[in-house]
Amino acid sequence: MKALKNILFLALIVMIVMPVMAQKVKDKDFKTKLKLAKKEAKSYEDEGWYVAPGDLPLEKQLENTYVKQLEEDDYGYPKYIVSSGNSVAGTQSAAKLQATELAKLEIANQLSSQIAATIDNQVANNQINSEEAATLQKTVAASKSIIATRMGRVIGMVEMYRKNEKTKNIECAVRIGYSVEMAKQMALAVMKEQLQDEANIASDKLEKLLDF
Fold first, then answer.
1. Cα separations (Å) of 89 from 28, 99, 163?
2. How far apart are CA 63 and CA 51, in angstroms?
3. CA distances from 5 to 8, 39, 196 (A)
4. Which residue in 169, 34, 27, 148 sits closest to 91, CA to CA?
5. Considering the entire predicted model, what is its pTM?
6. CA dist., res. 145 & res. 107, Å (int)
7. In sequence order, which residues have a C-beta less than 8 Å from that of residue 32 and are 6 or more positions away?
8. Distance (Å, rounded) from C-alpha 69 to C-alpha 116?
9. Closest Cα partner for 81 from 179, 5, 210?
10. Smaller CB count within 10 Å for the chain: N or C?
11. Pairwise CA distance, residues 64 & 151, whole Å
């Protein structure tokens, strides 16, 4: 009975202490990120970058970005995929549009890389055969641009500009975020569409594949 009480007591200590320790780590990470945001903003401003009128100051934008990057789901995985894009155009709006599209494509590339790695892992574990793997890898490559196009609304995190006084062109740099869960659902839907004529790929295998 005494031993049982000791075990229960130790379990209670772990339940109390571990979350506190985890929170301290997160608080420390957050404070470090805030310092980094201030330093990073100063560096960008020294290089001639500025924000559009009415937007948050660059330091605050960077702070918010780091906050999003630190957010986790119930299993401790990041809630958002974060990417960046950079483009130069004759107008501010055109530069922003191009930079955002490049950032979306980068998210699609990140997704594709994770899916490709999962396919290789499932082949190694004999969960899918080489023929299925080849079909899936081909589909992943073909789905990148479709995923980027269907991404729709993303979370704008950083948006800054710099003007080239010689050419009068505007350079835009953005950072965007997209929900990991939404990205997985969209990738699953796109790949299912692309694989509708491939009878040898079962739907349950595809869903398991995207559970990365």
1. 40, 10, 10
2. 15
3. 5, 51, 58
4. 169
5. 0.76
6. 10
7. none
8. 23
9. 179
10. N
11. 21
pLDDT in tens, the chain (212 residues): 444 344 333 333 333 333 333 343 355 566 776 788 889 999 999 999 999 999 999 999 999 998 888 888 888 888 999 999 999 999 999 999 999 999 999 998 888 888 888 788 877 877 777 887 888 888 888 888 888 888 878 899 999 999 999 999 999 999 999 998 888 888 878 877 877 665 555 556 666 666 65
- Token pair for 204: 């349950």
Entry field: residues in the chain:
212
Q: Would you call 61 helix, strand, or coil by DSSP?
A: helix
**Amino acid, single-letter form, for residue 55:** D
Least Cα distance to 187 among 133, 148, 156, 154 occurs for 148
Q: Is 17 exposed, middle or buried (0-12, 13-18, 19+ CB in 10 A)?
A: exposed
DSSP H or E run through 97: helix 92-124
Report yes or no: 68 and 177 within 8 Å, Cβ to Cβ: yes
Residue type for position 36: L
Environment class of 52 (CB within 10 Å of its CB; exposed 0-12, middle 13-18, buried 19+): exposed
